Amino acid sequence: MKFLLVCLVLCAPLAVAAEPPAAGVSGIVVSDGWIRQVPPVSRNSAGYLVVENRGAADDMLLGASVEGVRVTELHEMVRKGDTLMMQRRPAIAVPAGGQVALAPGGLHLMLIDLQRPLQAGEKRAAVLRFRDAGEREVVLEVRAPREGR
Amino acid sequence: MPDPAPPRRHTLRNVLLTLLAVLGVSLAMWASVPPAPVASDGPPPPPANSLPVVAGLGGEFRLPATTGQDLALSSLRGKVVLLNFGFTQCPDVCPTTLTRLGKVLRELADDGVDMRRVQPLFVTFDPERDSLPHLREYVAYFHPSLIGLRGDQDQTAALARQYKVIYLKQDTGSAGGYVFQHSDFVYVIDGWGRVRLLVGGKDPDVALFEAVKRLLREDPA
Question: Which of A123, A128, B130, B134 is deepest in the core (most CB within 10 A)?
C-alpha cells in the first residue's frame, strides 16, 4: 500500500508532463485534470478532467479517490429551467471512440471533506476507477477556474 | 357654393382671442405642473434607453451580515448592489458565480469606477451550516468588498420569495450531506433599491459589467 502511494506521488509529475497523454492498453486517456481552487474555509471542491476512449469498446468511469480528500463522488450539475440541480451519478459512460469532459457547470468529481486546504498550483494524486480499464492514476492540479468558469 | 366671407377684421380678432385663450390656459397649466420627478424624494423612472425596472420582485430586506451588523438594502441607497444567493458547500455553481463576480468587480475598478458605489452581496440558503464567521472567510476569498448575509430559515425563505429565488433542499445520498437545487441569478439593483437586471449563469460577464456602468451613469453620485 505504502509502495503504491510512493509510486503514485513519484509518477504524478510524469503524468502531467506527458504530452500528448499516452493511451493505455484499454485506450482510456485522461487529460487536463484540475481541482477548483476554493476558499481555505471550504470543505468541498470539485475536480475536472477529460476522459478519452481511443479503444474499440465502451467503458465506464465508476469512481475516483483523490489524495487528501475523504470522499470523492461522481456528480452532475443539471440545469432545469432557471435552476441548477446536483445529481449523484453512479457511473459515467465513456463510449468507444468518444470523450467525456468533466467541466464546470456539468459533470465533476465531487470532492467531499478536504483534509487539508487546497493550495494554488499544488498537485494532487488521484486514482480513477474504470469498469474495464481498471484503475488509472492521474494528477489533478489545483487552480482557479479560467475565465471565471 | 362658398359662404359669404365675414368681415376681415372680425376674423383677425377671433384668431387673436383664441391665441390669447390658448396661451392663458397653457400658462395656467404650466403654473400648476408639479415639480419634476428628479427634484422629488421618490425614485425617478429609469431613462427610456436604460434598463427597465424588473417588475414583481425585489424590495427592502434586513439581515445579519458578515460586517457584524444587520444590513438593510435601504442603507445602500446610491450604490449599485449585486445580489447573489447560494451556499458555501456548493461545489460548482456558487464558486463559479462568485469568481465571475470578483472578476467583474476587479475589471470595474480597473476601468476607473468608484467602487464605493458598488456593493456585492451573497446570501446563504444554508444558515444551518454557514455560520457568519465561516461565511465571512468564504466571501472574502472572492472579493474583499463582498458582504455575506445570513438570516434564519424564515428570513431566508421570505427573502427568497421576495426575490423569486428558487431553492430546494435535496438529499442526493452524497457523503457531503444535503445540497440545494437553486437558481443562480445575480440581481443587479440600482441606487434606489430597484432590481434592474437579472444576470444568469449563461449570460456573458460583460452583461454584468455593462449593467453596473450604465446604472452608475444614470444616477451620478
Answer: A128
Q: Which residues in chain B have their CB less than 8 angstroms from residue A84's CB?
A: 93, 181-184, 201
Instruction: Find, in chain A, the residue whose alpha carbon is nearest to that of B198.
Output: A82
The CATH code of the domain that includes B99 is 3.40.30.10
Provide the domain limits for residue A80.
2-148
Domain membership flag for residue B136 = yes
- Return the number of other C-beta atoms located less than 10 Å from residue A133's C-beta: 24
User: Do the beta carbons of residue B162 and residue B61 sit within 8 Å?
Assistant: yes
Instruction: Label the pairing between strands A28-36 and A44-53.
Output: antiparallel
Residue (of B80, B46, B178, B73) closest to B125 by Cα position: B178
Q: Which three cell numbers stand for residue A138?
A: 492521474
Q: Smallest Cβ distance to A83: which of B138, B142, B181?
A: B181
Q: Tell me the shortest Cα–Cα distance from A103 to chain B, in angstroms.
A: 9
User: The domain spanning residue A105 has which CATH number?
Assistant: 2.60.40.1890
Please state the domain count of chain A.
1
B-chain residues near A77 (CB < 8 A): 92-93
Q: Kindly give the confidence (pLDDT) of every residue in chain B, 221 residues in length, as a single tens digit, with 9 standing for 90 and above.
A: 445 444 555 665 665 566 556 555 555 555 555 444 444 567 888 988 889 999 999 999 999 999 999 999 999 999 999 999 999 998 888 999 999 999 999 999 999 999 999 999 999 999 999 999 999 999 999 999 999 999 999 999 999 999 999 899 988 888 889 989 898 899 999 999 999 999 998 899 999 999 999 999 987 65
In three-state secondary structure terms, A89 is coil
Nearest CA in chain B to A38: B95
ipTM above 0.90, yes or no: no
Is B148 inside a domain boundary? yes
Q: Determine the residue of chain B that is closest to A40 in CA distance.
A: B138
Query: What element of type H or E holds A33?
Result: strand A28-36
